[in-house]
Amino acid sequence: MTMRVDVVTIFPELFELPLRTSIIGRAAEQALVSFGVHDLREHGIGRHRSVDDYPYGGGAGMVMRPEPLFAAIEPLRAQGAEVILMDPAGERLTDALARQLARAPHLALVCGRYEGIDERVRHLVDREVSIGDYVLTGGELPALVLIDAVVRLLPGAILEASHEGDSFATGLLEYPQYTRPESFRGMDVPPVLLSGNHGEVDRWRRRQALRRTADRRPDLLESAPLTDADRTILGEFSDDAGSS
Ligand code: JE8
């Protein structure tokens, strides 16, 4: 079963390369996902295909008119899409939300620009999602971020094992990674990784993940599933800031 993702935007060209490249591009080639990018201007009003107008009540900037958005969104709703408006006031995109959305058969992502959309368009959407607390110029990059987070979770998109260890699946930050060469500019790969002792390697990685999380994102430890052994290791860190 292929997941369908439609996008509504005034900048369809922004989606061309990202949706053809790397893991997303390969998932599309494998028919794990198919994309439809719809130019909102095709529903624009008048000879100038206008999609925006001045805000009632005055103020700076322009607002996206409801008619083109309704015309673009209604057929997608009729096809059964879950319609998502990318919006700074939306629910935050988290790993848990990406996993939930990855189970949907059909998503339609609506991208605003300017000062945003006419309020009446919210009646036509199922949910509103934000990718974080910073101001962007429109919903297109957020839509691409959401697509990236969701498509990599589709079965077959990446080696399944690659997301079992995901930082937000284990609830911890990831352990440090090394590849060749063994020594680079005086910095050596930790010998345990060369030992061939998989039990030792696993314990070292868990310890490093715990240490990095305690140092950089102690907030994550409150909800991470931790074993008694993990808690013992964390206790050692706070006893002795210099221990490995
Ligand atoms: C957007 C956005 C997400 C995020 C998403 C959609 C449409 C109200 N503001 C609108 C005023 C300043 C300019 C803004 C531009 N804009 C931004 C986002 C987002 N999802 N995490 N940050 N920003 C639109 C218009």
Structure report:
With 244 residues, the protein is α/β, with parallel strands linked by helices. The chain folds into two domains: 3-160, Alpha/beta knot (3-Layer(aba) Sandwich); 183-243, tRNA(m1g37)methyltransferase, domain 2 (Trp Operon Repressor, Chain A, Orthogonal Bundle). The protein has helices at 16-20, 22-29, 66-78, 95-101, 140-151, 161-164, 167-170, 198-216, 218-221, 228-239, and strands at residues 3-9, 33-39, 52-53, 63-64, 82-92, 106-111, 127-130, 183-184, 187-188. Helix 8 (198-216) packs across helix 10. The mean pLDDT is 96. Ligand JE8 is lined by residues 86-88, 112-113, 115-116, 130-132, 134-139, 142.
**N- to C-terminal distance:** 47 Å
Query: In one word, what is the shape?
Result: elongated
Secondary structure tally: strands? 9
The main pleated sheet reads as: 5 strands, parallel
In helices, the fraction of residues equals: 25-40%
Sheet with most strands: strand arrangement? 2-1-6-5-7
Identify the bound ligands.
Answer: ligand JE8
The mean pLDDT is 96
CATH class of the largest domain: Alpha Beta
Structurally, the number of domains stands at: 2
Secondary-structure content class: alpha/beta
Radius of gyration: 23 Å
Provide the fold topology.
Elements: E1 3-9, H1 16-20, H2 22-29, E2 33-39, E3 52-53, E4 63-64, H3 66-78, E5 82-92, H4 95-101, E6 106-111, E7 127-130, H5 140-151, H6 161-164, H7 167-170, E8 183-184, E9 187-188, H8 198-216, H9 218-221, H10 228-239
Parallel strand pairs: 1-2, 1-6, 5-6, 5-7
Antiparallel strand pairs: 3-4, 8-9
Helix pairs in contact: 8-10
The protein binds ligand JE8.
